[in-house]
Amino acid sequence: MASHTQHYQLDLPKFDTPVRLLIVVAPYYKAIADNLVAGARATAEQAGAAIDLVEVPGALEIPTAIGIAGRQANYDGYVALGCVIRGETTHYDTVCNDSSRGLTLLGLQGLAIGNGILTVENMAQAEVRADPAKQNKGGGAAAAALHLVALARKWRKRDDPGGPGKDLDVIRLAGQLEGSPRT
């Protein structure tokens, strides 16, 4: 059951220079995806951000697309949008966990990502969460990305010519980097 509790929302950050956001959406459930995108677009435009949109087949491909863009394109932030509805098998758990884990790892590497991948029990829950006039989770994901972009810009070293998302340190979960000394 969805909570009707009001939650505090931060005001959108203000930017001196324009922000470029990439929205990556999995339109597996097209009507849900369209609502998520509408909410994300409205929030990004409210903050003056420029938006590009790409579609990928499913939620598992969203982190890969963002990772590629983070290495090869020039975006300040990313908005991940999609919907995973519980089915009869454990595939739901795999998709939810692995897409979330992928986005988290990219975020820990320095990419500013708002996660708007819905993980719900049924279509009715998805509809309420995606609707810009109701829970507006697409808008919330765009706002999260914008807040992270603002933090990245605030903390960026003045002599860093690469800008956000460039020359990211690699996070190793196990083992060592090749050629690094053993401690």
TrEMBL record:
Gene3D superfamilies linked: Lumazine/riboflavin synthase
Q: What is this protein called?
A: 6,7-dimethyl-8-ribityllumazine synthase
Q: Where is this region: Disordered?
A: 157-183
Q: Name one GO cellular component term.
A: cytosol
Quote one Gene Ontology molecular function term. 6,7-dimethyl-8-ribityllumazine synthase activity
Which positions are catalytic residues? Answer: 91
Which gene is this protein's source?
ribH
Recite the lineage of the species. Bacteria, Pseudomonadati, Pseudomonadota, Alphaproteobacteria, Rhodobacterales
Instruction: Identify the InterPro entries for this entry.
Output: LS, LS/RS, LS/RS_sf
Q: What is its EC number?
A: 2.5.1.78
* Reactions accelerated catalytically: (2S)-2-hydroxy-3-oxobutyl phosphate + 5-amino-6-(D-ribitylamino)uracil = 6,7-dimethyl-8-(1-D-ribityl)lumazine + phosphate + 2 H2O + H(+)
Residue spans of biased composition, Basic and acidic residues class: 157-170
Which amino acid positions bind 5-amino-6-(D-ribitylamino)uracil, per UniProt?
A: 28, 59-61, 83-85, 115
